User: Which sequence fits this backbone?
């Protein structure tokens, strides 16, 4: 019995020492990230029976438990992913906003306003060199503003792509670390240091990806991306990859097609194709929920063909390379015309996790939805790329609307030669099928040129009829040469452009162009280029400002000095509704209003990102503090525990002393 008392005291002393060690360790690690407060777990020792009575023998420490609320932790991980996503979006969208910063004299709106002001100044007196210079400088300001803006956006795009690669690599390192720490925990489930390190690594991973955690009976953690795709299973890992643009196929068992889908171009969309028969297919931009439709709302039936018959879907040219066989209804292809996020599966295949949003901006639930990596993709695909597309659409419209008026006008000096800036791929096929960039702008109609003698008198008139659906560029050159009787010579250059020159002693003007031929071929135009990156003032105009077309050719073939009819039309473009195509959507709006919309859209995205970031960050901090109240170290509480365990130690030591004294008395009695 005395021995039992002694052992009870001895165990109590040892328990107290262990508890003091645990408490001291808590205090020492109070500021260590990821450390969870540890608590010694006491269990009552087995009692003994004496004189028919069950007598307790004290307690022993069954384990040391790290405190954590698993439900709160999952909420923390989720809100951490959200906060990281919006942090990334806000960072880069603010950079986008900076590229579109506006002042009274700089930016998209000011540049375009300056151009229209220049044309308006020219209307007052088209013969004044000062007015010519204002038009040239304002036209160049528009071009350089568009060039610089889209170049900065391209830099942001490239920066995001580099950041994606870097973050994917960092996430994979954490995935490997978690698996290695799982191995340590499986070998020793009571290794709280390894558990803390693993859980901290999971927290860090949650900033990159939206993860869910399932804790297994052996103490290991299974980490799932988006709640269903395994990143870590015990010691097995599944890595993330950032891969370039690619396509995947899923053919029906009855399909005999051998070949593949080819594509050219980039888009923020993921394009799904589904065959409805052996040669026609539908296209979807939302994973098959809806099909691309025509103006009547009916699904567009695209025709499968080779590269010469490529279909354009979401700014991407799509065609098929065929070895043998035919498609059948149900054959599917998924084209990802951009670098994307993929997950390595156990069978060696890859699962596409690239964030995908519909027209309303709702993210597909089976893709990445939050975390900094998702934030980067969402910003790139839903903000940067659409803004670049909008800039290209704006620039293309500015180029065309300016050129189609300017190319029909006349300046103060007649032409002796003109060289086109837009080329065909094949000069022998119809213009509509030739690969000419502005082929869809051409119409059937008359084109007329007036030739002048050295003294400026009308020498001849050259008229041709143009049908873009039947006439090739070679045909156009032949018609001009045949009709002009040698006064004009038209040739097709080696690079596919049209060149027109007058005979010696003659010059010429464009008197009529119902077909929009001159603008379509880049002849007598104010601008060259087709996009925000390539727009530039035509060197033919900038080298000789008297080729700025302010007037037109009169019905008698003469050009009146001071005529401002073309300049008036160009100045009126500031308020005129025109057609602008961006991101596969056609807008009818003024150039000024569309410019304002580009700027306003980015501003609205920044404001939304700020609101979302503030909410997500607030939620994340709430769950952090909540978890900290459970698992964090409160130094004041630990100091109280230290006193408690010290008193427990002293009391247990007193028990040992009492037992020894009792034993001594018994021995003295013998």
Assistant:
């Amino acid at each position: 019995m005395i021995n039992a008392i002694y052992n009870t005291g001895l165990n109590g002393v040892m328990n107290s020492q262990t508890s003091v060690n645990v408490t001291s360790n808590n205090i020492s690690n109070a500021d260590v990230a990821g450390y969870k407060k540890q608590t010694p777990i006491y269990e009552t020792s087995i009692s003994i029976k004496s004189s028919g009575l069950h007598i307790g023998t004290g307690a022993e420490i069954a384990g040391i438990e790290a405190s954590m609320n698993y439900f709160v932790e999952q909420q923390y991980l989720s809100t951490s992913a959200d906060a990281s996503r919006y942090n990334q979006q806000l960072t880069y969208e603010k950079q986008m906003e900076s590229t579109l910063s506006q002042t009274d004299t700089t930016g998209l709106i000011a540049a375009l306003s300056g151009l229209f002001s220049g044309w308006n100044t020219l209307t007052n007196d088209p013969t004044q060199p000062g007015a010519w210079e204002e038009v040239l400088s304002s036209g160049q300001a528009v071009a350089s503003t568009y060039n610089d803006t889209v170049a900065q956006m391209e830099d942001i795009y490239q920066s995001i792509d580099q950041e994606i690669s870097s973050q994917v690599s960092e996430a994979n390192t954490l995935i490997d670390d978690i698996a290695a720490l799982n191995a340590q925990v499986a070998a020793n489930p009571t290794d709280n240091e390894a558990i803390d390190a693993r859980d901290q690594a999971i927290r860090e991973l949650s900033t990159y990806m939206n993860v869910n955690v399932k804790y297994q009976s052996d103490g290991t953690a299974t980490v799932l991306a988006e709640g269903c795709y395994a990143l870590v299973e015990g010691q097995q890992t599944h890595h993330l990859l950032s891969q370039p643009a690619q396509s995947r196929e899923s053919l029906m068992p009855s399909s005999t097609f051998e070949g593949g889908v080819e594509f050219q171009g980039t888009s923020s969309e993921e394009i799904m194709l589904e065959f409805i028969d052996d040669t026609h297919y539908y296209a979807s931009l939302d994973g098959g929920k809806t099909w691309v439709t025509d103006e009547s709302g009916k699904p567009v039936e695209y025709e499968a063909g080779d590269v010469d018959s490529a279909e354009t879907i979401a700014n991407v040219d799509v065609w098929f390379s065929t070895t043998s066989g035919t498609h059948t209804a149900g054959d599917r292809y998924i084209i990802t015309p951009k670098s994307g996020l993929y997950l390595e599966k156990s069978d060696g295949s890859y699962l596409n996790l690239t964030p995908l949003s519909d027209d309303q901006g709702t993210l597909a639930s089976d893709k990445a939805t939050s975390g900094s990596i998702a934030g980067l993709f969402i910003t790139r695909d839903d903000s940067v790329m659409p803004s670049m597309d909008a800039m290209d659409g704006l620039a293309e419209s500015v180029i065309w609307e300016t050129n189609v008026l300017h190319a029909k006008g006349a300046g103060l000096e007649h032409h002796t030669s003109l060289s086109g800036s837009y080329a065909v791929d094949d000069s022998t096929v119809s213009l509509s099928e030739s690969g000419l960039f502005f082929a869809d702008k051409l119409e059937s109609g008359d084109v007329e040129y007036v030739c002048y003698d050295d003294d400026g008198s009308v020498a001849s008139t050259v008229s041709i009829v143009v049908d873009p659906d039947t006439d090739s560029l070679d045909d156009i050159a032949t018609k001009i040469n045949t009709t002009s009787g040698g006064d004009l010579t038209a040739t097709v250059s080696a690079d596919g452009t049209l060149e027109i020159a007058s005979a010696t002693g003659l010059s010429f003007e464009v008197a009529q162009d119902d077909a929009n031929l001159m603008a379509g071929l880049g002849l007598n135009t104010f601008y060259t280029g087709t996009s925000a990156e390539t727009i530039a003032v035509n060197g033919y105009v900038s080298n000789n400002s008297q080729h700025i077309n302010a007037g037109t050719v009169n019905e008698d073939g003469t050009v009146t000095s001071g005529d401002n009819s073309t300049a008036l039309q160009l100045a009126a473009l500031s308020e005129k509704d025109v057609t602008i195509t961006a991101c596969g959507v056609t807008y009818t709006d003024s150039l000024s209003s569309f410019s304002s919309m580009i700027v306003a859209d980015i501003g609205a995205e920044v404001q939304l990102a700020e609101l979302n970031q503030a909410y997500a960050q607030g939620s994340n901090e709430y769950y952090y503090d909540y978890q900290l109240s459970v698992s964090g170290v409160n130094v004041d509480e630990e100091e109280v525990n230290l006193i408690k365990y010290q008193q427990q130690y002293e009391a247990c030591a007193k028990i040992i002393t009492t037992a020894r004294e009792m034993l001594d008395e018994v021995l003295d009695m013998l």
